[in-house]
């Protein structure tokens, strides 16, 4: 089977990193200061909210964490398959469906009501949990599509200036740039256009990744 070459796979993972930035921009700016991909932030928010910070919601952060875990559980079951690219294809297909549901919810219920916000958090949390579990199976260094802390650590600690091998500095920089671009684009659309537009961008990107994965599978068949 002719799967994407490593460079092509890296491009797809970077695209999913852009999706992460866009989706988290929507959730943080439009759903009440909560993340649906960055679970570290939600755990910290839970602590802040428990300490008495009234602008943060324990319910929203807890919902996001539980939805993400459920998505990661489903993605983990897919990742048990022998073909990790097939797991990524199926997880990406499910992710696209969930983001499409989020687009519909943003148009109908919106994020301004508690019900609408919670349903959006659930759909997006499930989608990002699926993405992370499938990408984790691939194990591409510095391309987790969500967590940049270790990527930035590797960029500095593994650099030649630190006495390291200086491996893949461009890929590390590209991962950071991809997240920034996604957050910028998602933020601009969320703040100046509409939530559905920002989620629509994420959906188009995920569908593009899915199309590339299926094209590679079909061309190899």
From TrEMBL:
InterPro entries: DUF1275 (IPR010699). The chain crosses the membrane at residues 56-79, 91-109, 195-214. It comes from the Bacteria. Keywords: Membrane, Transmembrane, Transmembrane helix. This is DUF1275 domain-containing protein.
